[in-house]
């Protein structure tokens, strides 16, 4: 193993969170949990990645206990005895393999499709009401609704701690509920949750604070955010380092321990005049550890595979990534699609067997390998 690659397999510690490597499995919706309950196949799927040297697994998005939290079929829940029992099996398997694991806690917000289980009659919830043909398709959230959702996240975090999860990740990215509050286009409220970016961030800040209160001072909280959203991949929530600092400071103060900075291509500079990516800037501005992500280990970014295609993403050189990690631009590296197609990705990288890494295609999404 070269000195550069060795950096990826150094231990990482933050308080009670001790990771055997800097490799993180990125959260990726797989939809293999009928009725929201993780199966034995899900247990084995995560266990294999931990056994190959992934230091921290962030699970696929798991819905909190709110009637409108889910938007897709066969997505796992993070509430109810049956689902939590399933996740306890995942936790035990990952720990036995030497890894750590956190659930990604998720509410889809206004992108929820009408008719989605488990309560198909419930409309989507979002910052603003939307109507179509005189029917409410998005329920504009009241202050009570906001309190209810915050309470659901706090309870999910409590449950995560109770079943032995090593922390939690709050999904504040990609155009889902928390992110919908951040954006001026989707949040035109006139109360304290709308207007300035500080006000539009209030929901997230209060949610993080509630999660912190629920789990205590030493339990790790990761917050995932993005500049882009699924409705607009070119969008930018902030356009300068100063604005990014103003956005992140209240979240950091509320209790975020690690920021998971979602980008489509990790190598792209976030702002003009600097080579730092989003994770690099976030680390510099908050002094908190960061996770970088975005087409790591592959030569094609994920948008190419969002439609039916025969394209294949081949393994890509990671020397540039390792250089950035070695100079401490960020602390942890999240791997997405490369870990879907090849559960032994981390082991092969560690042993210098790059030529053996499997390519990624849409076929890999059809099974839990």
What this model shows, in words?
This protein has twelve helices and 13 strands. It has helices spanning 3-6, 40-51, 81-96, 143-162, 177-182, 197-200, 202-215, 241-254, 278-286, 319-326, 337-341, 345-350; strands at residues 12-14, 17-19, 23-25, 56-63, 100-106, 124-126, 130-132, 135-140, 168-171, 221-226, 258-262, 290-293, 332-335. Strands 3-4-5-9-10-11-12-13 form an eight-stranded parallel β-barrel, surrounded by five helices. Helix 10 (319-326) links the parallel strand 12 (290-293) and strand 13. The protein is globular. Residues 302-307 have low confidence and may be disordered.
Structure described in brief:
The protein has 369 residues and is of the alpha/beta class. The protein is 32% helix and 16% strand.
- Structural class, by secondary structure, is alpha/beta
Proportion of β residues?
15-25%
Widest beta sheet: strand line-up: 3-4-5-9-10-11-12-13
- Which residues form runs of ≥5 with pLDDT under 50? 302-307
Helix content: 25-40%
Total strands: the figure is 13
Distance between the first and last residues' Cα: 27 Å
Radius of gyration of CA atoms, rounded to a whole number: 19 Å
Number of helices: 12
Q: What characteristic shape results from the CA principal axes?
A: globular
Order of helices and strands: HEEEHEHEEEEHEHHHEHEHEHEHH
Largest sheet: 8 strands, parallel, barrel
């Amino acid at each position: 193993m070269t000195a550069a690659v060795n950096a990826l397999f150094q231990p990482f510690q933050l308080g009670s969170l001790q990771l055997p490597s800097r490799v993180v499995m990125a959260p990726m919706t797989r939809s293999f949990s009928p009725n929201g309950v993780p199966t034995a196949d899900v247990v084995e799927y995560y266990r294999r990645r931990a056994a190959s040297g992934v230091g921290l697994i962030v699970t696929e998005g798991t819905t909190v206990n709110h009637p409108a939290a889910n938007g897709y079929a066969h997505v796992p829940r993070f509430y109810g005895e049956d689902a939590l029992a399933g996740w306890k099996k995942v936790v035990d398997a990952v720990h036995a393999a030497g890894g750590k694991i956190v659930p990604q806690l998720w509410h889809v917000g206004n992108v929820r499709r009408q008719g989605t289980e488990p309560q198909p009659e419930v409309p989507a919830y979002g910052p603003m009401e939307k109507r179509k043909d005189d029917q409410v398709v998005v329920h504009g959230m009241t202050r009570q609704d906001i309190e209810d959702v915050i309470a659901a996240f706090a309870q999910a975090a409590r449950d995560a701690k109770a079943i032995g999860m090593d922390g939690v990740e709050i999904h504040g990215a990609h155009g889902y509920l928390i992110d919908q509050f951040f954006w001026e286009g989707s949040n035109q409220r006139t109360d304290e949750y709308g207007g300035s970016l500080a006000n539009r961030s209030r929901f997230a800040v209060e949610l993080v604070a509630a999660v912190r209160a629920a789990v205590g001072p030493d339990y790790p909280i990761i917050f995932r955010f993005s500049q882009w959203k699924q409705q607009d991949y070119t969008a930018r929530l902030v356009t300068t380092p100063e604005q990014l600092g103003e956005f992140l400071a209240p979240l950091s103060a509320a209790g975020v321990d690690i920021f998971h900075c979602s980008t489509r291509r990790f190598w792209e500079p976030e702002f003009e005049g600097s080579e730092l990516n989003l994770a690099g800037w976030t680390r510099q501005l908050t002094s908190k550890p960061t996770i970088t992500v975005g087409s790591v280990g592959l030569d094609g970014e994920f948008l190419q595979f969002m439609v039916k295609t025969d394209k294949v993403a081949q393994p890509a050189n990671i020397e540039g990534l390792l250089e950035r990690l070695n100079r401490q631009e960020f602390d942890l590296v999240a791997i997405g699609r490369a870990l879907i197609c090849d559960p032994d990705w981390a082991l092969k990288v560690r042993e210098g067997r790059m030529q053996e890494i499997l390519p990624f295609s849409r076929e890999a999404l059809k099974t839990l390998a």
